[in-house]
UniProtKB/TrEMBL annotation:
<protein>
    <recommendedName>
        <fullName>GPI ethanolamine phosphate transferase 2 C-terminal domain-containing protein</fullName>
    </recommendedName>
</protein>
<feature type="transmembrane region" description="Helical">
    <location>
        <begin position="487"/>
        <end position="509"/>
    </location>
</feature>
<keyword id="KW-0325">Glycoprotein</keyword>
<dbReference type="InterPro" id="IPR002591">
    <property type="entry name" value="Phosphodiest/P_Trfase"/>
</dbReference>
<dbReference type="InterPro" id="IPR045687">
    <property type="entry name" value="PIGG/GPI7_C"/>
</dbReference>
<dbReference type="GO" id="GO:0006506">
    <property type="term" value="P:GPI anchor biosynthetic process"/>
</dbReference>
<dbReference type="GO" id="GO:0005789">
    <property type="term" value="C:endoplasmic reticulum membrane"/>
</dbReference>
<keyword id="KW-0256">Endoplasmic reticulum</keyword>
<dbReference type="InterPro" id="IPR039524">
    <property type="entry name" value="PIGO/GPI13"/>
</dbReference>
<keyword id="KW-0808">Transferase</keyword>
<dbReference type="Pfam" id="PF19316">
    <property type="entry name" value="PIGO_PIGG"/>
</dbReference>
<keyword id="KW-0472">Membrane</keyword>
<comment type="similarity">
    <text>Belongs to the PIGG/PIGN/PIGO family. PIGO subfamily.</text>
</comment>
<comment type="pathway">
    <text>Glycolipid biosynthesis; glycosylphosphatidylinositol-anchor biosynthesis.</text>
</comment>
<dbReference type="GO" id="GO:0051377">
    <property type="term" value="F:mannose-ethanolamine phosphotransferase activity"/>
</dbReference>
<keyword id="KW-0337">GPI-anchor biosynthesis</keyword>
<feature type="transmembrane region" description="Helical">
    <location>
        <begin position="529"/>
        <end position="560"/>
    </location>
</feature>
Amino acid sequence: MRRRGRDGDASPARRTRAWTLATAMKFTALRLFASGFLLARVESPSRATARPDAARAIVDKAVVLVVDGARHDWTTATRDEGDEARRRLKLPSARRYGGGRRCEDATNERGRGMVFKFIADAPTTTQQRLKGLLTGGLPTFIDASASFGGTTLGEDNLIEQLSANGRRMAISGDDTWSELFDVNATFRAGAAMYPSFDVKDTETVDAGVRASMAAALRAPDDWDVLIGHMLGADHVGHTHGATTDFMRAKLEENDRDIENVVEAMRADEKYADAMVFVFGDHGMTDNGDHGGGTPEEVESFMLAYHPWAKGENCGNGDGEDDDDFPQIDFAPTMATLLGVPIPHGNLGKVNEKVFNLAHEGKRASGRGDVFAAYVRAMHANAEQIWTYVQSYGDGKTSPFGAEHTTRLAALMKVVRANKSVDTTEFVLDFMNEVAELARAKWAQFGLLSMTVGFIALVVTLTAHAVLAYDKVDDARDGDLDLMIARVGTETVVASGLWLASTVVFFGGGHTCSFDGLHFAVAFTGFRKFNFYGMGFLLGFETWSGEIILAVAIPLFAFAMTQNEPYESFQRLTVRVSMKVALFRAFAATCAALCAFIHRRHLMVWAIFAPKFVFDAIGSTVADVCAIVAVASSFSRHPLERVKRE
């Protein structure tokens, strides 16, 4: 039989032990859910350096035009001719220029291009996609680095390598780039950034990019790399949807933008050794969302075009399916074309077709065997990836593990043994293995872990409810009204204290976002960096409401039982604390449910994931502090002497 107190309640110590067990179960469930939901990795601070055998640049200029949110099917002929809405949503110029130089077209003597299916990895928010494009890696929700905060791109990346190697860059468009770089210092040839938050503004950014790029294209001697990032199509999708007349009008406008850029380069011989790349950083659903789940969301297009190419290869336009071009391949391909080191953390490979296309200009026309040059580029690419794999060492942060690292070492040994052979077979085997291992770790949700974790959360929530209210149905009929009144009072007090801790959090200027953390607090009293000390101060200040709550519960219990035995104070402290724990568990479970349902939502990494993280940590901190406070009441407490006096 259960040991009970005077009022029929179970022993406070026994209930506290059960509560501690439930808290441990909840922590385990939260961690299991987070392991499948919060894609995470550790950033590497290393930087790539030029190798002695590095090839010189193949092109001397590159123009990049990003049409944010552009879907791949906007450049393809619809297979359902009856779907008028889809049939008319096209970017015909991308297909026209990407169809290759048609042999029968005598007027098109120069210029050749191709369209690829540009495939993104989750998460597909714009900032994370830019990180992936520029580093060649797989950005995640948590890209932990040596610094406490900030969204600056801390890893080695294409822009940093171009700047370090003297390339002059100009940029205009989406101000998300300003979050990643100091644009004025990095893009010294010119920077014109425009606010990206107002999704109802579908014109300002595009108009700014249009004007800036037109001016820059008239002055090719002032820059080496020109970047424009248009947001109109993405904003139209969010505001009106992807299959509306608003989108049709925007795509017609963007189609003219693509044509104007390409024709300006075709008309000026200074672009004889230049290439232009037009692509979307991600796609979107018919509703305009881009969380990363469906082909419409992850598949965009990329037009790679050489305006002065005069090769003998001819394209057949729409007759063939577009080749896949993983977005992680963009950084190594661009670095190789422009003659700079491939970023240290790159996992992609140099695209052969774009490499060949670049060799059709004047600059590369006399270099001999193009395939042999490509093989050399791929071997340099493989050495870079192997250096990155080795940089993780045997630490816990390595996603590869001892078994897989041994296999990768064996594959790399084969690559080096066949370095003199004109084949890329062994190199591709190695690269594909590394990319698959990294993608399995960093870019795919663990649905099994999320499902089991959520079910475990529901079980622990039920356990918390039973512990908080199990005595009501044990009450005798005569005591039921009194019991309900007391439980109601305790619930009101618990809910009030819980809400008060929430007020402390938000009233203190905090938000459920990492850029809302008060990082200055971490440096209080420290002259040098101290990870644990600063982390403790930051956590203490952030969840101070939970800590205050843990102290407040015994004080309220003491005030409510001043004229009763000390055992009544103990029981009331336990009961109120467990009800607060129930509220916390409910909030954490709801946050996990929202994260699970909306894991492919546009704002999952901006809203749902941070909310889950803050609720999970806050719930754990509150429970631990409360258990410590309750446990301390079981000792010879000063309050007991006060009551006896």
